[in-house]
Amino acid sequence: MENSIALLIPTYNCEKTIEELVKESKKYISNILVVSDGSKDETVEKALRAGAEVLVLKKNNGKGYAIKEGLKVLLPQPIDGVLFMDGDGQHNPKEIPKFLNAFKNYDFVIGERNLKKGNSPSLRRIANYLGGFFLEKMTGYKLKDWQCGFRLLSTKFLKKMKVSFERYEFESQMLIFASKNKIKLGFVDIDIIYKGDKSYYKKFKDTFLICLKSLEFFYER
């Protein structure tokens, strides 16, 4: 029996990419929820036109908050897992089958980009390495690409996890929670797609804040 998977896409001003992303993703997943985190462009209109359900947040609160609100909509549904993708076109929908296949054996599947090749910015690689080294020590996982937002988690895992953070710390919280609950991770290789558009992730500042927040969550009882 095939698993029922929903796709959750948090967005902020992604009018250039969201329509094509939704259309291509629908070839593999029919249940798609786009969360517009205070977008001021045509993200909402283009997501709807492509056939996605859309949750509109009037104020920009951060990626973690958008995901948290999206999960409130999806988790009550009769689904087995939630696939997360970024809305800025960095993730290739053609790689969705890799996650669906790996999900047969794991409750948590993460995409891994080869950051040593392609056009990944050098500062991003350095920040990824520093944060990854820190999280490896905390979780015991071998992490090549802890920041990647292309990931698939089971609903039973997500229902147990309380979302504590509202910005980019959410990805690290997932890993720490999985480690605490002795969840075995699955990994799939994915391509790097950087289009040169503005990133709202401040590499060293946000990585430093993620490390601090991760420590807070790690020692939380």
Count of domain modules? 1
Rough outline: globular
State the major sheet. 7 strands, mixed
Beta fraction of the residues?
Answer: 15-25%
Compute the separation of the termini in Å.
37 Å
Report what the structure shows.
With 221 residues, the protein is an alpha/beta fold. The protein has one domain: Spore Coat Polysaccharide Biosynthesis Protein SpsA, Chain A (Alpha-Beta Complex), CATH 3.90.550. The chain has eight helices and seven strands. Helix 1 runs parallel beside helix 2, helix 5 runs parallel beside helix 8 and helix 7 packs parallel to helix 8. The longest helix has 18 residues. It is globular, with a radius of gyration of 16 Å. The model has no long low-confidence stretch (mean pLDDT 84).
List keywords for this structure.
221 residues; 8 helices; 7-stranded mixed β-sheet; Spore Coat Polysaccharide Biosynthesis Protein SpsA, Chain A; alpha/beta
Can I get a quick summary?
The protein is 39% helix and 18% strand.
Secondary-structure map with pairings?
Layout: E1 5-11, H1 18-25, E2 31-37, H2 43-50, E3 53-57, H3 63-74, E4 81-84, H4 96-102, E5 108-113, H5 122-139, E6 151-154, H6 155-160, H7 170-180, E7 185-190, H8 203-218
